[in-house]
Design brief:
33% of the residues lie in helices and 15% in strands. It has three helices and four strands, in the order H-H-E-E-E-E-H. The longest helix is centred in the first third of the chain and has 20 residues.
Length: 99
């Protein structure tokens, strides 16, 4: 087993550029071999415990704001009128945002 000297060696700019280029080229080849396509497909099919397995669209019925509801001007959540904390220039704020 041979060990190289730990003392820095002086390289010319041209030699340094060649060495850097060869290191970059070798690293690119090594990194290209790291991607395993079979692992990628396995990861896409993997489902965490409690995760949804069905690939179906969720259907949601959107309802208009009801007469006893308001939209908070701070958090933009639709709240029941019992949570109205203040009204300022037509903007309504819920008790959670004013709390």
């Amino acid at each position: 087993m041979t060990f190289e000297s730990a003392a820095p060696t002086m390289l010319s700019e041209e030699d340094r550029a060649k060495e850097i280029a060869s290191l970059k080229a070798g690293k690119t080849v090594e990194m290209a071999n790291l991607i395993d396509e079979s692992e990628t497909s396995l990861a896409e099919d993997f489902v965490l415990p409690g995760g949804e397995t069905a690939q179906e669209e969720a259907s949601i019925e959107v309802m208009a704001e009801q007469a006893d509801e308001f939209t908070c001007a701070s958090c933009f959540m639709v709240r029941h009128r019992t949570l109205l904390a203040r009204e300022d220039n037509g903007q309504k704020f819920c008790s959670e945002c004013e709390g």
